Amino acid sequence: MTLFVNQGSLMDSGLSLGTDHIGLMLALFAVPVLVFINGFFVAAEFALVSIRKTRIEEMVNSGVVGATKVQKIIENLDQTIAATQLGITVASIGLGFVGEPAAARILFPLFQWVVPAWKDVTVHGIATLIAFVGVTFIHVVFGELIPKTLALRAPEKASLAVSSTMLLFNTLTLPIIRLMNGTALLVIRSMGISVSEVPVSVHSVEELKLLIEDTEEAGILEAEQATFLQNVFQLSSKTVSECMIPREKMGMIELNLPFDQVMELIRDGGHTRMPVFDKDIDNIVGIVNTKDLFYLISAKGVVVLEDALYPVIYLKPNATIAFALKTFKNSHRHMAVVRDEVSQSVLGLITLEDILEEIVGEIEDEHDKPEGSSRIFRATIRKRRS
After folding, report:
1. Which of 38, 44, 136, 254 could form a disulfide with 384 if both were Cys (CB 3.0 to 4.6 A apart)?
2. CA-wise closest residue to 274 among 375, 386, 373
3. How far apart are CA 17 and CA 31, in angstroms?
4. Distance of CA 145 to the CA centre of its chain
């Protein structure tokens, strides 16, 4: 009977050892799987948060495979982030539940063999501590830091890689996520915090300027292109008085000037549009387009200057360049006279070309003199001859 009992005990002991061995092997197999799952959700979270919506739209329009899925995911980013957090939490808890005991079981016999005099309680405590540190190290390095770094370095590729799995995971966990989000909202509202409106993340003008500088430094934008973009932002801060042609440099035509002298003036000036005044420079009666004059001459032979005039557009000296550009666009005109609000005296004029030069720099044509010389039409005010 005793022999039988001893044999049964041996069989139970062997079965237990075999079961423990299988459990340990499964646990060791589960550790890298859980680390990978944790890393997947970490990479998904950082990639989807950091990728720009405008870039995704560009990829969708270009027909990039998987871009439509990414766009669908980030349309409800709150739900997606909740899903990634759920995946990270479950994987982390599972790793701690499985990994630490498995590592401790491996280390326990090793410490018993190295220091036989230590009690089992002491050996078990040391083995558990080292196992905890080791599993935490693996978890942080391979499950957090490496996936995060890869996702931030290549958010587009990472987003495309995780899109299909995240869509499926979002669908499967939708009831749980809604329950958790609802609970979180109730708690937040109970604290007196309003969550009715989700703030939209937009860039300020200063941030856009910095983005342009960074893009130029990265070599994506050429220096000239970056300068153009930076100058565009100045249109709303610069005033007409800063960019106008001053009164003393305006090229003008008197209304009653003989026609041959008018044509001489136009020929010398070499410009398409010129203001026309009647007796007094402050009394501008219109703007003449020289192309219209040439057309009327070819059609009628005799031209009255007054018949070729366009109405004058007046701008205040403190009006912005952006406002002037909008005025030109709405009125279909390319020239405006700058006039003082109080005295009604003419201060200067501004053209569409002047505004463009604020963006792209000096624009010279075949009528412009070399650098260092004044332009002909800005050099002299032609007064009426008696």
Report:
1. 254
2. 375
3. 21
4. 25
Per-residue pLDDT of 13-34, as tens digits, reads 333 334 466 666 777 788 889 9
268-309: pLDDT as tens digits: 777 788 899 888 888 999 998 888 877 777 777 666 778 788
Task: Enter the DSSP assignment of 142.
Answer: I
Determine contact, residues 128/104, Cβ cutoff 8 Å.
yes
Strand partners, 319: none
Whole-number Å distance between alpha carbons of 132 and 328? 72
Ramachandran class of 361: left when φ > 0, alpha when ψ lies in -120 to 50, beta otherwise: left
Three-state SS for 192?
coil
What pLDDT, in 10s, does the model give residues 87-108? 999 999 988 888 777 776 776 6
Q: Which strands make up the sheet holding 245-246, listed edge to edge? A: 245-246, 346-351, 335-339, 314-315
Kind of pairing between the strands at 309-310 and 253-254: unpaired
328-357 tens-digit pLDDT: 999 999 999 999 988 889 999 999 989 988
Q: How far apart are CA 355 and CA 248, in angstroms?
A: 20
Tokens of 243: 């960019």
Torsion sign across C-alpha atoms 121, 125, 127, 132 = positive
Name residue 276's beta-bridge partners: 253, 286
